[in-house]
Amino acid sequence: MKVQEIVKVLEGIRLKKSRGQNFLINKKIAEKIVDLLNIKEDERILEIGPGLGSLTDEIIKKGGRPFCIEIEKRFCDFLKVKYGKKIEIINDDFLKMDPEDLKDFRKCIGALPYRGAKKIIMKILLEFENIKTAVFCVQKEIADIIVSDKNSKNYSPLSVIAHLRCEAKKIMNVSPDFFYPKPGVISTVVLMDFKKGLIDYDFYRFLCVVFKQRRKTIGNNLKGIINIDIKKRAEELNPQEIFSLYESLKDYFKV
To answer: Quick one: which residues bind S-adenosyl-L-methionine (predicted)?
Structure first.
């Protein structure tokens, strides 16, 4: 959509800063993002946060059938009028949805809101075994976290779980000029090809503990749960090493 069209649609609507709502307005970028999914004719595609439909347009052009989850009712109403029966859309919060209700989808896409992107991606990593390919446009900082490895300042629980579940790579950066309203950060498109099944949710709890205070050793972070003499920090271990450590201690993290 062009800026003038978006401005017209948004007349009388106040965007919520708490949700980081910025709309992709560059058609060529939207096309490149959707191309990464290699959509087959009549294939159902899960789209999270379609907003005003910049990616939805391209999914339909590629022969896909978008199933959109949009938290804002006003955007849902707009998309229903714009696309009619070409899409399925529900007004809901993806973070509160049951993965069982979305188990038929193999591909997922979204130009995710800056404020909720990390939680959305973590939910997919932890709860969606059916998703095999995901493409997201997110704040560059989040993309850096997803692909980072040990001894990096961005290395975190999200990095570890992403490495263990999929092959993730940054495809391209997207200028703030290609969004409306113009954000104060660069965005990055990330492609995630899932190779392995779900990881025990207790492992995520373990990661939150050992990464809680990054400069402390794993042994110090685990005090109060288990007394163990581990001199290394979590950021010094690669994902598989951290998972192996968890396997030896997992009985302490069961709920």
So the answer is: 22, 24, 49, 70, 93, 111
Residue 49, annotated as binding a ligand? yes
Q: Is 221 annotated as a binding residue?
A: no
Rounded Cα distance between 132 and 16, Å, is 32
Which value, to the nearest 10 degrees, does the dihedral of the CA atoms of residues 137, 142, 144, 149 take?
Answer: -130
34 and 65 assigned to the same domain:
yes
Show which of 149, 178, 194 is a domain's final residue.
Answer: 194
Any known ligand binding at 134?
no
Q: Is 70 known as a binding-site position?
A: yes
Residues of the chain with pLDDT under 70: 1-20, 255
Contact 49, 24 (CB under 8 A): no
What's the one-letter identity of residue 16? K
Q: Which residues contact 191 (CB under 8 A, 6 or more apart)?
A: 36, 133, 134, 135, 168, 169, 171
Give one word for 198, left, alpha or beta, with left for phi > 0 and alpha for psi -120 to 50.
beta
**pTM summary value:** 0.93
In the chain, the amino acid numbered 133 is: T
Is 35 among the annotated ligand-binding positions?
no
Look up the CATH number of the domain holding residue 145.
Answer: 3.40.50.150
